[in-house]
Request: fold
Amino acid sequence: MKKFFFVLMIMLLSVSLVMATGSSDKKKDSGKLNWPTQAINMVVAFSAGGNSDYNARTMAKYMTKDLGQPIVITNVGAAGGTVAAAQVKDAKPDGYTVLVHQLSINVATAAGVIDFNFADLAPVCVFAKAADEVIAVRSDAKWNNIKDLIEDSKRNPNKIRHAANTGASTQWIAIALQNAGAQLNIVSAGGSGERIPLLLGGHMDVIPIQVNMIEDYIKTNKFKILASVSAERNPARPDVPTLLESGVACSYMYYNTFFMPKGTDPAIIEKFSQAVKRVVDNEKEYAGEIVSFGQTPFWMDTQATTKHFADELKSLMAISGVLRGK
Reply:
């Protein structure tokens, strides 16, 4: 009898160990991140052909290989990127909808164009630092600097057409120029890719644009630059003054950034961010494409990205009244 009970106890102990091991394995398996298992929709908040669109498409091409799932680009270029931001904010937080945006979302908040801010989304990472934005005009324009532009606009009020989008960074430029004394006709003119043909065709007189997008037009003497929006002069263009130097209180840098809907699993956000980092750090072909576009590969993690947007929004809220035309 004792032998029977001893054998029974051994059997029960063995079953318990098997069950415990199985439970542990299941728990371990359930902790694995089973994402992505389908295509990811990357919503670019601006029209095709612009800086954000180029950077998104270039990054998506290499991330598709890294993540093992296709990334579909959707351009929602309306209202300075606010429509796209609202769409992604309200999307299902499952990791399959990603927003591409930049400082325009903070401008829109400060300008009162939207009733939410970047923190109503989940910042993922900065994935590209755009080339300097500049103020460009046609080469046959009579102005050679910002002072010329401002003085001529005073003599011909509301005649000079300046491209800007309400709630976008270009609105900041337009308001700053007006505060410096310019009397411009501010015209909504779409994203950066749409402004170039408008300037070429004579439908706009002044456009803010990333300098890398107009290199060929500068070389062929179709466009010239009046000033840069950066805080300091670019060593590659030492003769181009900044807006600040020109007496216009406006300065910023574009950080193309990924956001997901708030509530997205932090593990998904981290996996996506690390996939971006791997592309930036390791993909030589990606680096070649970005360098040829006048940029250098750049990545900023989730924590640093969140801090950057929070600091930037704080600065913009300090001039909220100006942005709202008060």
